[in-house]
Amino acid sequence: MIQHRRIHHQGPRPARRGFTLPEVLIAVTVGMIVLVSAVNFSVSSWTTRRGWTLRETVDRDARFVGLSLARDVQEAGIAFTSTPVFASVDAGGDTLSVLSVPFSPAEAPVYPIYDDGDPAPTYPPGGTCGATCIEFQRVDGRVDLAAGDVVRLQVGSVRRLLLLTSVTPMGTTQFRVTFLPTGRLVNRPAGIDSLLLARTGTSIQKTTFVMYWRDPARRSLMRADRLDASGQPVPSMMASEVEAFEARLLFTAGTEHPSYNGLDADTTNDGNDIIGVKIRTKLRSQRTDPAVSGGQPISRWYEWQVAPRNLLYEKSRL
After folding, report:
1. What is the pLDDT of residues 65-123, one digit of tens each?
2. Is pTM, for the whole model, over 0.85?
């Protein structure tokens, strides 16, 4: 038997086609561009993040300094009314100091001078019991003072600061204090030198203080709230890598000055015209990064203005 095979005739097969050389080159070029862009973006993002991390450390130090300054400056003038020549807040270039009266919980008592009964209006030059010794009367039978305290001596309208070196009870009605023989404390007049103590109108009251200043040797911002036996502030470091610290006083006339002066002809810069403080500081990063700022530390300026409500109250009351 003869079998017949059916032969199917098909059309011509399409030719197989690949990528041409130009197409390959274009694809490789586009791919390289995309890859390089992605790498550059990743490197830029990483560098930006590292720079942001350095700046954030500086900003964190600045926030800490700003909060501390605002808290302390707000205390200026609590139960301590400023006078033209003796204010509760003072600045001096890279130094800032604040005075106030403590409450624990009541206001620190005012101790009047002990009156010995002599009819003369003032005591002889010096203290009442020695050159650096004065006797005062107790208040409610108590004496809430101790060696190391800073007190405000008030003699009529004249003020001085005293650093007590001893407090000695004298019977049930009076006590004796001795103080450091120095002419300046916390950047203000201290001691009594030629000041005559009045038998009436003389008193002392415990005073608290805070000082800020820049230590150029350590490039650090320092803070102190107590004095050593020689009358020097006992510092604690607030921030390191401080390149600049500037404090200026703001006055009611809308002006600002590096300090106050109640003795010159300008009446707009008296101590009792102070309403606030402006502080500028320049902080630098403690670490460096070779990918940021050419490997150099990052520096940034910061500024704060603080207007203690106590100083505003003083002006409103006067």
Report:
1. 999 999 999 999 999 999 999 999 999 889 999 999 999 889 999 999 999 999 999 99
2. no
The continuous run of DSSP H or E covering 60 comes out as helix 21-73
CA distance 271 to 121: 29
Chain-centroid distance, C-alpha 240: 13
- Whole-angstrom distance, CA of residue 163 vs CA of residue 149: 6
Which residues, 6 or more positions from 304, have their beta carbon under 8 angstroms from its beta carbon? 66, 69, 70, 278, 279
Cβ count within 10 A of residue 4: 5
Burial of 168 by CB count in 10 Å (0-12 exposed, 13-18 middle, 19+ buried)? middle
Tokens 């805070």 -> residue: 210
- Letter for the amino acid at 83? T
Strands 242-251, 256-257: pairing kind? antiparallel
**Hey, what are 130's tokens?**
């020695």
How many other C-beta atoms are found inside a 10 Å radius of the C-beta of residue 61? Answer: 23
> What sign has the CA pseudo-torsion 233, 238, 242, 246?
negative
> What letter would DSSP give residue 267?
G
Structure tokens at 42: 């990743």
Measured CA to CA, the distance from residue 152 to residue 238 in angstroms comes to 27
The rounded mean pLDDT for the chain is 87
Q: Are residues 273 and 259 in contact, defined by beta-carbon separation less than 8 angstroms?
A: no
Give the span between the Cα atoms of 24 and 167, in whole angstroms. Answer: 96
| Long-range CB pairs of 287-294, under 8 A, 24+ apart, other chains included | 287/54, 287/57, 288/54, 289/50, 289/51, 289/54, 291/46, 291/47, 291/50, 291/51, 292/47, 292/50, 292/51, 292/54, 293/51, 293/54
Q: What does the DSSP 8-state code read for residue 73? A: H
